[in-house]
Amino acid sequence: MNSGELTLLLDRLLAASDEHEWVEFKHNNDEPHAIGEYLSALANAAALDGEPFGYLVWGIENGSRQVLGTRFKPASAKVGAQLLDLWLHQYLRPKLDFRFDAFDYRGLPVVLLRVPAAVGQPVSFHEVEYIRIHSAKVKLASHSDKEARLWARLNQRGDWSAELAGAATLADLDPAALAEGRQRYAEKNPHLAAEVAGWDDATFISKLKLSRGGQLTRAALLLFGRDEAAQYLPLPPQVSWVLKDAEGTALDYHHFGLPLLRVPDALLARVRNLTVRYLRPGTLFPTEVPQYDAWVIREALHNAIAHQDYGLSARVNVVELPEQLVFSNAGRFLPGTVQELLATDCSPEQYRNPCLTQAMVALKMIDTIGSGIRRMYIEQRKRFFPLPDYLIDAAQQRVEVRLTGRILDERYTQVLMQQPELSLMDVFLLDKVQKRQPITGDEAKALRGRKLIEGRSPNHHVSAQVADALGQQAQYLLDKGFEKDFYLMWVLKRLRMGDCKRAELERLLLGKLPEVLSADQKRNKVKNLLAEMSRKALITADSKRGPGAVWRLLPAGLDRLAAEAGA
Q1: Contact residues for 207 (Cβ-Cβ < 8 A; gap 6+)
Q2: Burial of 170 (0-12, 13-18, 19+ CB in 10 A)
Q3: Which of 36, 106, 302, 494 is the most exposed place for a label (fewest CB within 10 A)?
Q4: Phi, psi of 446 (to 5 degrees)
Q5: What is the per-residue pLDDT for 447?
């Protein structure tokens, strides 16, 4: 753009009556990290608002929009020995073709940074994605509503699965997969069963909206294609099953190709689904159930296939560990977070691969109203098993689902049996507690209000009330620990026998401290206890500091022991 075009552009930006989140005015702030964060925020804000560019202008006061001029000279600005422009490009993902323009405006020097809108995925700087909230620059991950809407915008770029599959024809489809598909479609639409039997393959594929103008879509090949038909897709799609031992060593594996419609049953046949036994309250006879529910396995796999970002050229993976099944697929988790999905019970607003997912709904493979994930949690709860774990890696664009095939904590299993009225969110939070995963202060408060947990963050544990009801008092004491005086008296009794170093006191006390504490937390507990006893003049250390100090008993400590004995 020449100076005249730049002047007209700045006229337009200044004349806008409303404040836009894709425009920012500065006077002289040229701190490199701040500029990088603005590049991310403005690119994402422009994409969210449907604008082709975002703009950052130096030399204009933000509030009054008065032209002040600027000392910022981007062409010569450096970060260390590196030019600013090159330094910024180095830390932006994906690459962004931004441009600095310096020119005179109303007789004063200004600089205009033009930032292209994000395409395909949010723009990050130093691996962090930013967005504008009014005039504030904030992390995108902290605003899940904006993040979900941004991804919805970015995914309007097109449906990979709806693209035509080149020269592929009906002869490239697998007859057995088509027969299974007809059966599924008839089960989904029983009123059409007789009609479905009379359809030829072209009509059936058309009814599933998997063809356009007689040509097959990529989704048609994904579901029904012969294995060799993968040549018509950018990269051969695969689902991989890997069997690993407890140390993570691969023992066996198998790669499944097209047609993906038939993969779930074949993969399920390879999973070693052992029997788990547990006792219900009031009975001496154990209940026997398989490690994994077949419907939950299929739902997890179908979701991975449906929501895989096939443009990233990655496999859908299923890793079988001794007591876990791990499903992973490439792509962002479009609903935002699982917790939001469970708490609101709302359908996601955006789906990846609409052509593919709509056909999978018609074939009874998934449910696009968004209840599939929620039902997975409900089914695991009904079985009194740990809930699924969703690990969402936004930076790597990867979603992982872990199913646990054993009882982790019998106390929590018994809670679910005895309190079926608990909400799904209550169970979700209790599941996090049993897995020693962090919960927020508000979440802990809610569980305490139901007398379900005790303990200080992050060491929450089952409450005394629940432990008593379940006959778990011993484990409760191991989790909670004893009163402080208990440990204090142990120290006094040991020092009455003679002076000693802290290491010996640690050996005495560590095994008696709460099991929920880590080794470092236990040692800090001992250190703090000794410091408190020293302040109270019950014990003292020699002139040395730290672990090498030798502790001895003081007269007040002897008096405390005597009082305890007299009691």
Answers
A1: 185, 199
A2: middle
A3: 106
A4: -65, -40
A5: 84
Look-up of token digits 């809930």: 387
Contact 318, 241 (CB under 8 A): yes
564's tokens = 């305890």
Structure confidence at residue 68 (pLDDT): 94
Which runs of E-coded beta strand occur in 315-447?
A: 316-321, 324-330, 389-393, 398-404
The per-residue pLDDT of the chain, averaged, comes to 87
Q: What is the mean pLDDT of residues 420-445?
A: 86
pLDDT one-digit tens code per residue, 171-184: 999 999 999 999 99
Structural contact between residues 354 and 161, judged by C-beta atoms closer than 8 angstroms: yes
**Angle at alpha carbon of residue 419, lines to 415 and 420, rounded to 5°:** 120
The SS3 call for residue 284 is coil
Which residues does residue 99 pair with via DSSP β-bridges, in sequence order?
A: 114
Please state, in angstroms and rounded to a whole number, the distance separating the CA atoms of residues 414 and 410.
Answer: 6
* pTM given for the model: 0.62
339 three-class SS: helix
CA atoms within 13 A on the CB side of 324: 17
Measured distance CA(168)–CA(230) in Å, rounded:
10
Say if strands 53-58 and 23-26 run parallel, antiparallel, or are unpaired.
parallel
Which residues lie below 8 Å from residue 294, measured CB to CB, with a gap of 6+? Answer: 268, 273
Q: Which residues contact 85 (CB under 8 A, 6 or more apart)?
A: 74, 100
**Structural tokens at position 171:** 């002869």
Residue type, 191: H
Q: How far apart are CA 304 and CA 257, in angstroms?
A: 15
**Apex 14 CA angle, 13 and 19, nearest 5:** 75
Q: What is the pLDDT of residue 442?
A: 86
How far is residue 155's CA from residue 334's CA, in Å, rounded to a whole number? 10
Reduced to 3 states (helix: H, G, I; strand: E, B; else coil), residue 132 is strand
Nearest in space to 243 (alpha carbons), one of 298, 323, 305: 323
| Alpha-carbon span 134 to 27, nearest angstrom | 19
With b for 16 or more beta-carbon neighbours within 10 A and e for fewer, the 114-142 pattern comes to bbbbbeebbbbbeeebbbbeeeebeebbe
> What are the structural domains of the chain?
3-153 (3.30.950.30), 161-232 (no CATH), 410-480 (no CATH), 484-566 (1.10.10.10)
